[in-house]
Amino acid sequence: MAKTKRIGILTSGGDSPALNAAIRGVGKTALGFYGMEIIGFRDGFRGLVEDRRLKLDKAALSGILTVGGTILGTSRDKPHRMLIDGRTRDMTEVIVENYKKYDLGALVCLGGGGTQKNALYLAKAGLNVITLPKTIDNDVVLTDSTFGFATALDIATEAIDRLHSTAHSHHRIVVAEIMGHRAGWLTLGAGIAGGADVILIPEIPYDVQKIADAIKRRSRHGTNFSIVAVAEGAMSIDDARAFKSAEGKRERARTLHDKKEAKNELAALEARHTGNTLRLARQLEDLTHLESRVTILGYVQRGGTPSPADRLLATRLGSACADLINEGVFGVMVAARGDRTEPVPLEKVAGKRKIVAPDHPWVETARRVGTCLGD
Ligand code: F6P
Fold first, then answer.
1. CA-proximal residue: ligand 1, atom 9 (nearest)
2. What residues flank ligand 1, with Cβ below 6 Å?
3. Distance between terminal CA atoms of the chain?
4. How far apart are the CA of 348 and the centre of ligand 1, in A?
5. Domain of residue 80, CATH code
6. Residues 132-157: pLDDT tens digits?
7. Catalytic residues
């Protein structure tokens, strides 16, 4: 088999700490160890469509290990549904043409769940695709963890630490909203590490009365402040039921009319979910008669310098990725498995989401140390 000479690389989806560490890991190994040439494509899959390139030579790969964000820029564009001049178009053919035009032997895609799906799509279109798992949400299947998660965990934990002293001083409930999309890893991890009194995750729908009871129990025992770590995707039992029913309708819908109706129902529920954390804080204030405040951590969790753990993981995965390209292994995601890495077929990853099982050891740990999980 002819050895790969030139590879393309792009970052796609929401940015996350250690993307640059991963670009450097792939780049330095491919360039310095295997003598390949690397082209970076800007702003995700759009860079491949619009011919926006950045040559990643030795100088470009230097000094980026500790830098947050991505030197390539990113976007949530999908190859087969891209907004071009105000119209949504399938740009797969253009991407395949450009891949050939640049004489690429492989395309490395760094991203989360959505990127794995898009990568599989391009693999099926005939490209030599290989991916790395990135996201602060840690919700990619078949890898021990994703890079970005460890840094976000540090940031969210530090935030909970800091919220403790102000909650304590004012005898308040502080509700801290933590990212994670539809998975509770970040909230559960930071909640345990930061000693939150209540942890609410999407996988365990909550009953607001039970949360209020737990907070009141603390007050009765002389502790009149509480920290509630709530995942952005956490829901009350009623809301979770409504979502489940709407999602079921969408799956079962056969006619265009039914599909549209289910889509509208889901959109209405999603719109209602915005502001859920504020609503929850108000409900808790009413039920406990303790003053409450909300802190939405937001993009602070995604920005800035990656932690050493993330730099290490991203460098390991990036370097292993270059090894696999050299061996001609494509159509896979490079996963972390203990101290090692392993290629996992994209078919097994795309379209799946790793969520927290209700009996996961982290959940059990939280319960054992007396944390209320809202159920
Ligand atoms: O996937 C990472 C993430 O930060 C999620 O936790 C969050 O739900 C989402 O991205 C926000 O996406 P965007 O930055 O596109 O609004």
1. 181
2. 14, 76, 112, 135-137, 179-181, 232, 302
3. 57
4. 23
5. 3.40.50.450
6. 999 999 999 999 999 999 999 999 99
7. 137
